[in-house]
Amino acid sequence: MSGGIEVIFLGTGGSLPTKERGLPSVALRRDGEIILFDCGEGTQRQMMHAGLGFNRPTVILISHLHGDHILGLPGLLQTMSSLARDKPLDLYGPKGLMRFLELIYKPLGYPANFRVRVKELGPGEEVDRGDYIIRPVLAKHDILCLAYAIAEKERPGRFHPEKAKRLGVPEGPLWGELQHGKPVKFEGKQIRPNDVLDAPRPGLKVVYAIDTRPAETVKDLAKGADLLIHDGGFAEDRRPKAQEYYHSTAREAAQLAKAAKAKRLALVHISAVTRDDSILLREARKIFRQTIVPKDFQVLSLKQSK
What we know:
Layout: E1 4-11, E2 25-30, E3 33-37, H1 43-50, E4 58-61, H2 67-70, H3 73-82, E5 89-93, H4 97-108, E6 116-120, E7 127-128, E8 132-138, E9 146-152, H5 161-166, H6 173-179, E10 184-186, E11 189-191, H7 193-196, E12 205-209, H8 216-221, E13 227-231, H9 239-244, H10 250-260, E14 265-268, H11 278-285, E15 291-292, E16 299-303
Parallel strand pairs: 3-4, 4-5, 5-6, 12-13, 13-14, 14-15
Antiparallel strand pairs: 1-2, 1-16, 2-3, 7-8, 8-9, 9-12, 10-11
Helix pairs in contact: 10-11
């Protein structure tokens, strides 16, 4: 079970890389697993620089098939193969992802030593990963684009050994059953989990919505999120351009985060034209105080409630 999520911003730039910002990619490190949102060119270099390793259990979620979000995938898979990765890799994305992989594998060949398990997802097609769920919804872009939530499942409340002892339940397997939310019988008495456990504790929720106009679907997905990572690389004076390219301004992303009652907002997909990102931060914080504009390699730690 996870004790938290570490968010590593690998690439925070927009369509063009700059000296300061790489192309889109955000990694979550959770319980020994890497969950990667998007894979812009050079992602494998960013991962290497961040010390993430290439043989961990890995899930990659592709938002859409524009080049700045997916062209790092061939290089990353080749790097993993060169470094003798031996674990399967799970890859999810919108319709068209399999066709893209077929085209790149024709000349390059499939990775020799590990399996890539690909699944195309549609909006609302959830994936149960055991301790957490992947929830995709439709974002508002000029091609099919998915926003994703990584939503940890509820955890049992804190166990009180003294209550179990007071009820006469001996230490051992029966305590384990109660801790896992199962009622037990002992000496003719039924003991319920809520007799010895606090209320269930919510898991963490991280939402990733890039290359999108503000959308109701994303707002609903982000309700109560611990972190909303949202497209927001345009200042207000360039809102017409944001609308034309189906992106969001920093202010619009902040309005959505506030409406969704998210706890924190990280603005990504920072336009190469935006040389001073403090403007974005200032405009967003007027609406939603808990906003950051992360730099590449910035790390944010999310802790579960006790």
